[in-house]
Amino acid sequence: MPVMRSVLVTGALGQIGSELVTALRKRHGSDRVIASDIREPAAGVGSVEGPFERVDCTHIREIENVVRRYDVGTIYHLGALLSAVAEEKPRVAWEVNMGGLYRTLEVARQEGSAVFFPSSIGAFGPSTPRQRAPQETLQRPTTMYGVTKVASELLCDYYHSRFGLDTRGLRLPGLISYGAPPGGGTTDYAVEIFYQAIRYRHYTCFLRSDSRLEMMYMPDAIRAMMELMEADPNRVVHRNAYNLGAMSFCPSELAEEIRRHIPDFAIDYDVDPVRQAIADSWPESMDDAAARYEWDWKPRYDLGAMTRDMLEHLAVRLQQRG
Question: Contact, 36 vs 9, CB < 8 A?
């Protein structure tokens, strides 16, 4: 039996990467999954339990050295600036999001590695249908984050059609996790609200109460990434990138669900015009029929199950921190 090539995760210390590394190491073994990030991990972070390399994805030689040294066969490229931060630093967002992906694809082309790329609901814009945004539809985002996501989808398509590179991606909705803290996204409220509900029984939301968006619990998202990369390539048609859905809700509905467990929880609103404008440009829900048909995608968590699990895990986590 041939020896399995290694797996590299860039942006491994971020919200997604920290949990993806853990899941991949459980699947493939700690020594076969290399975590990398532009910053060093803090003591106690899961990424230090296996190989870790400091990699700046805007420097092609750094990516190349790691891929060659560890014989990397699959790259999960997560290194990027998120939506709200990208609006504050558009030039940096372009250099990191586009430059990092381009260099990663170039190294993958040279070394014969497959690449996973996370696109986003942010790849859509105000002219996209708000309800059940189709897999193939008009994409005219109005944010730098969205522009880089659309361009990245096209770049991955190009590398697949031009060079035969195995590129695959997902249009992820807002992600909710008790693992790593939020990293500057428009949907961060859906994580922050749980911390504040447990600690203070109160949260001030930066989006309007009726701002409905597609969301997903992190365990479903991590499983989807791994299932997509393990899917039969003959069935994978919409490579870059599949719509992915699980639940669609607004802040007031999430608050009401939390009150089922914390009855005295209260929410008020102080709308951030920048993040509200971003949210208003995104669909309220996505049609993920292609993912369900082509590689049997099915979410396991709805709003109720996610809220219950999130509160249970986060309460323990916060208690341990004192």
Answer: yes
CATH superfamily of the 6-173+218-243 domain? NAD(P)-binding Rossmann-like Domain (3.40.50.720)
Among residues 70, 76, 102, 145, which one is catalytic?
145
Per-residue confidence band for 319, with pLDDT thresholds at 50, 70 and 90: confident
| Residue 195 among the catalytic residues | no
Query: Which distant-in-sequence residues (6+ apart) come within 8 Å of 207 by Cβ?
Result: 186, 189, 251, 269, 271, 272, 275, 276, 279
Print burial letters for 125-136: b (CB count within 10 Å at least 16), e (below 16).
Answer: beebeeebbebe
Element (H, E) at 85: helix 83-88
For domain 176-214+246-284+301-321, the CATH class is alpha beta
Half-sphere exposure of 62 (CA within 13 A, CB side): 13
Domain spans of the chain, in order of start: 6-173+218-243, 176-214+246-284+301-321
Q: How far apart are CA 291 and CA 217, in angstroms?
A: 17
Distance CA 14, CA 20 (A): 10
User: What is the tens place of the pLDDT at every residue in 199-244?
Assistant: 999 999 999 999 999 999 999 999 999 999 999 999 999 999 999 9
Q: Please report the DSSP string for 6-64 in residue order.
A: EEEEETTTSHHHHHHHHHHHHHH-GGGEEEEESSPPPTT-GGGGS-EEE--TT-HHHHH
Task: Assess contact for 267 and 196: CB atoms under 8 A.
Answer: no
